[in-house]
Amino acid sequence: AQQGHIREKTYGKQKVYFADQERLPAAGDAELRVLDADIAARSAEVQALLQGCRQLEAELKDLNSAMTTLDMAREIEELRKDCTTYTEKLERVKSATNHVTPEEKEKVCSEQKLYCKEWRRRKRMATELLDAILEGYPKSKKQFFEEVGIETDEDHNVTPPAAV
Hints:
Shape: elongated
Helix content: 55-70%
């Protein structure tokens, strides 16, 4: 500092030393433009490297999340086992001799429709008859059903199947 190579500034009780910039050579406009162009080129290079780094990180993430060869082999083996199990099941079903013919199925379906229709008709008749009896009955419907011993579909949570 005494020789003039560095400068000294006092801030309160602290002293700060820094280089004397007046002794350094001043850069011309041409040199500043060259330096600015160099900075711009290096910034572009840094951006390109950062972009490449992001792409490589994304690729690494994809590769890490993908199945390994061993995992893939295990998965293939499991799928083959499932396939053979389903094939055996299919063969058993195909070889069964107790298949229902379409005629038998149609017959059963028509009988079910007939029985459901009859069930609804009889329930409606019984309800109308009981409502007629209850018009002159002094007690409640529930008490009448208990005295007579009538059990309804609702008591057993039963409903006729929907019409097909």
